[in-house]
TrEMBL record, chain A:
<dbReference type="GO" id="GO:0020037">
    <property type="term" value="F:heme binding"/>
</dbReference>
<keyword id="KW-0732">Signal</keyword>
<feature type="binding site" description="axial binding residue">
    <location>
        <position position="137"/>
    </location>
    <ligand>
        <name>heme c</name>
    </ligand>
</feature>
<dbReference type="InterPro" id="IPR002321">
    <property type="entry name" value="Cyt_c_II"/>
</dbReference>
<protein>
    <submittedName>
        <fullName>Cytochrome C556</fullName>
    </submittedName>
</protein>
<feature type="signal peptide">
    <location>
        <begin position="1"/>
        <end position="20"/>
    </location>
</feature>
<dbReference type="GO" id="GO:0009055">
    <property type="term" value="F:electron transfer activity"/>
</dbReference>
<dbReference type="InterPro" id="IPR010980">
    <property type="entry name" value="Cyt_c/b562"/>
</dbReference>
<keyword id="KW-0479">Metal-binding</keyword>
<keyword id="KW-0408">Iron</keyword>
<dbReference type="GO" id="GO:0005506">
    <property type="term" value="F:iron ion binding"/>
</dbReference>
<dbReference type="Pfam" id="PF01322">
    <property type="entry name" value="Cytochrom_C_2"/>
</dbReference>
<keyword id="KW-0813">Transport</keyword>
<feature type="binding site" description="covalent">
    <location>
        <position position="133"/>
    </location>
    <ligand>
        <name>heme c</name>
    </ligand>
</feature>
<keyword id="KW-0349">Heme</keyword>
<dbReference type="GO" id="GO:0042597">
    <property type="term" value="C:periplasmic space"/>
</dbReference>
<feature type="binding site" description="covalent">
    <location>
        <position position="136"/>
    </location>
    <ligand>
        <name>heme c</name>
    </ligand>
</feature>
Length: 145, 316
């Protein structure tokens, strides 16, 4: 019995260790998101050539990234301290935070579904997503030195 | 005890002279007639540019406003600072609750001298320390544009400030230290026109230095650390260094800066955040020429290391 308890607790420990740092996990997702949006923004602006298939692949990657962004897992209580720029308002207004994240996911899905045919169509979508980025970072992120 | 009487008498005299001097020095100063004559009838279309460059809506629209609601300047945002809470007032065209009854001279005295139509000092949370560098003709254009915006009834709550900051008259002394119409960054006459134009937009209407420059004990911007970034005066966190010094934006090209102001995306794959979100939305309303001018100026300002302390990394 005792061995079983030890085994279970070891498993539990190993399990929690794998997901021990929601701060690092959410930062990795945000970094990936920024890279993809930044790449798409260059195409939308005309700095890079428009290739419909490549753009769609990137939009799909963006959707996969957004779907992985599970707020409950990534922003548990207590993860507001440490090496993070997540603002306290996330936990004060969790519903509001989830709402802006949901809007972003819906906008990304709409972009994938629309499959932009040219840079102008993509630009409209990138503008919408960029506005979502700003809306969230306005209230829910604290810039630190 | 005669000496004591003399001492008390002398103290009273010194006190009176001090009080009178303080009273005289702290008096609100309004614009001279020469400046007022430059307020020829303005042009609303040109004033729209000044409105967005000046960021009026960021503080004077109801917090969280989007789209056309940003033109309803009803006030009510709370700026929580170490001096207390400042609440930007209603500056819509409502004649009673807003500024619908103001003349163009009233607006010019407010923006260039920080003095209200009733002759009182405004608090410099209203960034007239920057607006003082604006051309009177731009104020006239802004006045014409404000006239096209809706009247919205409703007074915003007053400021709530701690002593001694609740004594408005004291601001007169502050103005003697910090208010002037001279540019911060001296530029040679041979400086490219775009840099000059950018200096005007950044140091004047754009009032970028109000948040991006650290302040001294009396709340004046430290000109020796101009745009070096600062601990946020309002809210929490920091406002970034936008010079080319260490920690700043030396790695950004002029095109990067202009693109950021237009789209909100940084060259480092991040997005605009905090109070800058509203500012960037205003900057997006300007022309590409204006944004390029701002970028050219920012690349020309003297580089400084960060004007805020390094981050204390805490262990998880």
């Amino acid at each position: 019995m005792r061995k079983l308890v030890v085994a279970i607790s070891m498993l539990a420990f190993a399990g929690s260790a794998a997901f021990a740092d929601p701060i690092l996990d959410r930062q990795a997702l945000m970094k990936e998101r920024g890279k993809i949006v930044g790449g798409l923004a260059k195409v939308a602006k005309g700095d890079e050539p428009f290739d419909a298939a490549a753009v769609l692949t990137q939009l799909q990657a963006l959707q996969a990234n957004a779907e992985k962004f599970d707020v409950d897992t990534l922003f548990p209580k207590g993860s507001d301290t440490g090496d993070t720029t997540a603002g306290p308002k996330i936990w004060e207004d969790m519903a509001g935070f989830k709402a802006v994240e949901d809007k972003y996911l819906a906008d990304v899905k709409a972009a994938v579904a629309a499959a932009p045919a040219d840079a102008d169509a993509l630009k409209a979508q990138v503008d919408t997503m960029g506005s979502d980025c700003g809306t969230c970072h306005q209230s829910y992120r604290i810039k630190k030195g | 005890m005669a000496w004591l009487k003399k001492l008390v008498g002398a103290a009273v005299v010194v006190g009176c002279v001090g009080a009178v001097t303080g009273w005289v020095l702290s008096a609100p100063v309004t614009l001279d007639t020469q400046t007022l004559t430059q307020l020829a009838p303005g042009d609303a279309a040109r004033g729209k540019r000044i409105f967005y460059a000046g960021g009026c809506t960021s503080c004077h629209a109801k917090p969280g406003s989007q789209g056309d609601a940003r033109l309803r300047l009803v006030g009510g945002l709370e700026l929580k600072t170490p001096f207390g809470t400042f609440v930007p007032p209603n500056i819509s065209q409502d004649p009673n609750d807003g500024i619908g009854a103001w003349s163009v001279e009233d607006l010019a005295n407010a923006m260039l001298k920080g003095v209200s139509p009733s002759g009182e000092h405004f608090y410099p949370a209203f960034p007239y320390a920057s607006y003082a560098r604006m051309k009177p003709s731009d104020i006239a254009d802004l006045y014409a544009f404000l006239k096209t915006l809706p009247a919205v009834a409703g007074k915003a709550p007053g400021n709530s400030l701690a002593f001694p900051f609740n004594i408005r008259r004291g601001i007169g002394l502050w103005k003697r230290l910090y208010l002037g119409d001279q540019p911060v960054v001296a530029l040679a006459d041979s400086t490219p026109e775009a840099v000059m134009a950018g200096r005007y937009l950044v140091e004047g209407p754009g009032h970028c230095g109000e948040c991006h420059t650290p302040r001294d004990f009396a709340g004046g911007t430290k000109k020796g650390e101009w745009l070096a970034g600062a601990v946020a005066a309002e809210g929490s966190g920091i406002v970034p260094n936008i010079t080319s010094g260490k920690g700043g934006i030396g790695g950004w090209s002029e095109a990067d800066i202009a693109n950021y102001l237009e789209t909100g995306f940084t060259p480092n794959f991040d997005s605009v955040g905090g109070a800058m979100v509203d500012v960037q939305r205003n900057m997006a309303e300007l022309t590409a020429v204006d944004r390029a001018a701002i970028a050219a100026y920012l690349k020309a300002v003297p580089p400084h290391p960060n004007g805020y302390p390094a981050r204390q990394k805490t262990a998880n």
